[in-house]
Amino acid sequence: MQPDQRHALVTACAVLAMGLMAVDFFNPSLPAITAALHTTQAATKTLVATYLVALGLAQPFYGSYSDRHGRRPAVLLGLAIAIVGLSVSAVSTGVTMLYVGRVCTACGTAACAVVARAIVSDVFERASSLRSAFAWFTMASQLSPALAPVFGAAIQQRWGWRACFFTLAAATALHLVVLKRVLRETHPPAARSTPTATSAARATYISLLCNPTFMRHGIGSALIMSFSLGLYAMLPYAFHALGFTPIENALFYLLYASAILLGSALAMRLPLHWASESVYAACVASFATLCMLAWALGIGRNLQAMAVFAMALGTLCGIAAPLALALGMAHACSHARGAASALQGAIKMGCAGLVLLGFDLVHIEDFDGVVTIFTGISTLLVATHVGSIAAARCHAPQAHD
Prior knowledge:
By secondary structure, the chain is mainly alpha-helical.
């Protein structure tokens, strides 16, 4: 890896981690927020889903913006908006105001995911190096869920949930200042699109949306992320019902994040002659097998069984997530990597948000409810994968003709 590539990868990972902190920092505080704002479990669970939907809807703006003006100004703008949203959340007096603050935060942090993926695609163009880079990318994405809930839970227990929002707003402001000094532009002016290229950008979006392979990996990436987001969003309620503390909840997150790190490390070491598509298909089948087995065994109140399930699930996510990212971004051309990243992110966050809305239908009393939902997600993942392959095969003869 060249020095410029190493610098770009490190800064991209830092940008991504900062964006993810806006979700993970507050998860252990959800029951406390529910009580303090005199709302319901369903309302705070919907808060997470609403955040993700807003995150997905905002990403196309940053994709086009970064393709026209560069990656650096796009991420700095997003962080500034996120600081405003976090500040509003910190002073919320009711759940409606908290919703406004969280949507504003999502509209800002959307820039982090878009720009981070675009930076990686800018500097790693070969398929093998891109797969390896996204494996590092996935590993870095676990810094937030591994550490943020621990710090967030400690702050919440000592100073209350509002202090969590104030702390992250200050950390985001510091991050913005540091990025202004160290972030290098990876999208040179010669490669940027112009306002007159709007129709071409629209054609790019339409082309990608009509591509079964791109959509397979975009939706697959969303469903894979739904496992992690679902675990982070629902575990506080399961552990609260089972009598565990926020710190124990955060330590379980740490276990799960460690499994994702292990899976990402394995993904980096896959032999180059192994086809990424074949490995990804094997992961899809493994998700379904694992979830159905856990559902059949009923592991909802057995902490050891829950831990084994989380380790296996996290390892699979760590392998499959970078493969889905790399296979999806391989369809992006040099002048529209921001747009492709944004579209992939919009699909990923939007679909994941819709899946999380389905979580509201289940009142979480133990881990069995979580496993039931995960079984449904794994079934959707298999159906999407098989269906898109069938669609691509049906489309191929027509394209040939």
